[in-house]
Specification:
Helix content: 10-25%
Shape: globular
Number of helices: 7
Radius of gyration: 29 Å
CATH topology of the largest domain: YerB-like fold
Structural class: alpha+beta
Strand order of the largest sheet: 5-4-1-3-2-21-14-17-18-19
CATH superfamily of the largest domain: YerB-like
Number of domains: 2
Order of helices and strands: HHHEEEHEHEEHEHEEEEEEEEEEEEEEE
Number of strands: 22
CATH class of the largest domain: Alpha Beta
Distance between the termini: 67 Å
């Protein structure tokens, strides 16, 4: 309301009161009521005075969730290789990852790749472990900066051939990676190194790496919640080898899957809680020996089928990838592009021979 309008009210009210006092009790002054009503109607409503357009929320490109940091917009994501053997437990920083990949490596063990959309908000994560070339093939199409501690000969060949922007613990100065000396003494030096976003960015800055760039998510997010109610999947079991598997239990209240590792809750050391995901994607592929070497593995990205699980339900999908720099393409059974629910995702690739062990709600 303007000052002039309020001044008019102040000047009129005494006159109205004098007029009202001059009438017998109980009689209404229609003229007074009319003037007051006009004055009330002239006031701006609270909705009019506070109706400012809401600023659009910034969405996390890897989860579709609101509240993404403005500082991180237009910055490349970061993919960190994380050890997953018994000596590495409990790992740190996995709960904050937007996407977690799990693929088998030598000896039937699995390795994890944690992907973060915001390079400025990465907690200490690890233990950081060595690179594998097929993980680089997953990270490159996402435009990710790649963090590892050592690597296989094939991985180093990929890093050189494809110009991978990486942070390698084998070739960084002392102090970049934090070493947990208690872990080193208890389980070995190779299971004791961790790194956070600040250290990652400092190394990349020193190397002259440009962290500007778009994040290429491997899927699109649905505008409305997805559920396949006729196909329940509240208990899931995925096997990678005779010694390594991942399970998931659906919680209806949170609409999240709680992850298990080899039958035990998969815990994050920093949060003290079980890892949780909104989306589970399982891809069947061919895992063979790399170049005839008994201890190395090759993972085919030629494509195949798999499953998408969310909201306690499941649907079959088809996937393709192709070359090293080609992104994943996920489609429904009818060939339409797969859309996933907003939230964090877990993606597993396992050999076709493990299909017989895959179960849900059994």
């Amino acid at each position: 309301m303007t000052k002039l309008k309020w001044l008019a009210i102040v000047m009129i009210f005494p006159l109205l009161l004098l007029a009202a006092c001059g009438k017998p009790a109980g009689e209404d002054d229609e003229e007074t009521v009319s003037v007051i009503q006009k004055l009330e109607l002239s006031k701006p409503s609270s909705s009019e005075s506070s109706s400012e357009p809401e600023e659009p929320q910034i969405l996390n490109p890897l989860t579709g969730e609101e509240g993404f940091s403005e500082e991180a917009v237009g910055k490349r994501p970061v993919a960190v290789m994380v050890n997953n053997i018994g000596q590495a437990l409990p790992q740190r920083g996995l709960a904050e990852a937007d996407i977690l990949y799990e693929v088998v490596v030598e000896g039937g063990i699995t390795r994890l790749m944690a992907v973060y959309a915001d390079p400025y908000d990465i907690p200490y994560v690890g233990p950081v472990r060595s690179a594998r070339h097929y993980y680089i093939s997953i990270a490159l199409p996402m435009n990710a900066l790649y963090v590892h501690f050592g690597g296989s000969p094939a991985a180093y060949q990929y890093i050189s051939q494809y110009g991978v922007d990486d942070v390698d613990g084998m070739y960084t100065q002392s102090g970049v990676f934090y070493q947990d000396m208690d872990r080193a003494a208890a389980v070995g030096r190779e299971h004791s190194f961790f790194i956070n976003g600040e250290s990652i960015l400092s190394v990349l800055e020193g190397k002259g790496v440009d962290i500007q760039g778009e994040t290429a998510a491997p899927f699109a997010f649905a505008e409305e919640e997805i559920s396949f109610e006729e196909k329940p999947a509240t208990e899931i079991f995925i096997r990678f080898s005779s010694g390594y598997n991942s399970g998931f239990t659906y919680d209806e209240e949170s609409k999240l899957y709680q992850k298990q590792r080899n039958g035990e809750d998969h815990m994050d050391a920093d949060t003290g809680k079980c890892l949780t995901y909104r989306n589970i994607i399982l891809l069947f592929t061919s895992v063979t020996s790399y170049n005839g070497e008994a201890e190395r593995r090759e993972v085919s990205f030629a494509g195949g089928d798999g499953y998408y699980m969310t909201d306690g339900s499941i649907v079959p999908i088809h996937w393709e990838k192709g070359g090293v720099t080609d992104p994943f393409t996920f489609t429904n059974a009818d060939g339409t592009p797969l859309e996933v629910n907003v939230g964090k995702s877990y993606i597993a690739l396992t050999d076709e021979s493990q299909r017989q062990y895959f179960t849900y709600n059994q």
